[in-house]
Amino acid sequence: MKWPLSKKMETSLLTCVIHKGEKLKMYCLDHSQLCCSKCFELNHSQCSKVTQISELTNSQPTGLEGL
Known about the structure:
By secondary structure, the chain is α+β, with helices and mostly antiparallel strands. It has a domain at 22-58. It is 28% helix and 13% strand. The protein is built from 3 helices and 3 strands; from the N terminus they run αββαβα. It has helices at residues 7-13, 37-44, 53-56, and strands at residues 26-28, 33-35, 50-52. A hairpin with a 4-residue loop joins β1 (26-28) and β2. The mean pLDDT is 82. GO terms for molecular function: zinc ion binding.
């Protein structure tokens, strides 16, 4: 089912709150957090269970439906 969201809202939900402008691309199971590339480099590089969001959805995300 598709959610009726504006493009601005969708972009806001898919963007890292710490590193403005960076897209959320990974999920750290160790910390139960979504993270961008910069978050991964700074805080999650030693974590054992970091997975690309696209792998978790078994497809390439095309928007919020992919998450």
